[in-house]
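**User:** I keep going back and forth on a fold encoding question. It is easy to fool oneself when nobody else works the same problem. Could you pick a protein and write out its sequence and tokenised fold? Could you put it straight underneath, so I can go through it closely?

**Assistant:**
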Amino acid sequence: MTKPPRKPSKPLLGDADALLRSRPRRRRDPAQPNLPLDPMPDRIEPCLALLKAKPPKGDDWVYEIKWDGYRLAIHVEPRGIRILTRGGHDWTNCFPAIKQAALWLPVGTAILDGEAVVLDEQGRSDFGLLQQSLGGRGGKKGSSDAIFMAFDLLYFDGHDLRNSELDMRRHLLEDLVPPKEQGDIRLSEEIEADGEALLRVACAHGLEGLIAKRRDAPYSSGRLGDWVKVKCVQSDGFLIVGYEKSTASLGGIGRLLLAARKGNELVYVGGVGTGLNERSAADLREQMDKLIIGKPAVDTGRKRNAVFVRPELVAEIEYRAWTHDGKLRHAAYKGLRHTADNAAVCVLE
């Protein structure tokens, strides 16, 4: 004999006219612990790579392509998106496409570390193209061409990740920005390979170089050696101390006169005339004409038709070597660094 269905102990629905209520919520026990959440930092000083002649060896290291652009931190916050430069300046309005892509990230709060770049037709980052897309030095307009290459995750949904190992931070970053993503925020992918062989391939393809990172290291602000950079071609920031006039050259600039730091002094390291185009020459001339001074800030030797300027502008210069008397060889101008980027000036031993 089949048993009748068991009656529920309480009716599922009350009388039509009865007011249905959920059970009253119990008061929280003050002794019950809260889920610990870390306050979101307003800004994090970036981890910087230490320049080395050769890539480090060993399984403790992983490699990435070295990108040539502006170092940025994207803050995904409850009140919106902030994009900060290496120097802590707010450049959110300079990168509207990156901002929009950050709004679509599947996360409530986060801080992503990476580089804003513009890629050339071969997929290589080009600092000159980035500056052109921003309307010259200073970010006069928003760049719709720049993309953000994300390479670290410092804060994620209420948790500060800086004390976590790189491998863990990267694991979470790859969930947030999947590999092979082709939007305005992309993943700077890690490459596990022999460092020296990888460097040869990178240089053969005209890339900037490599970044090596210690996989078990926490995120440490400053230049402590957990990140190492190895360049295919040497490049540094040099102070512009003047220029030689030329009626035949773009913008009337024959050569830029450059200086490096040595102790508390500036030292003249030669000039550069290669690498200027019509737009960059016009922008340079506009900037330098505001800084003209009567006497040079550094001894440049005898120069004909030279105009001297206050040493405030930092030019990114690519070069092959140094001469025996401390001058740059085969130098080429790449662009002006902005003060917001906290560009380092070359320091001579």
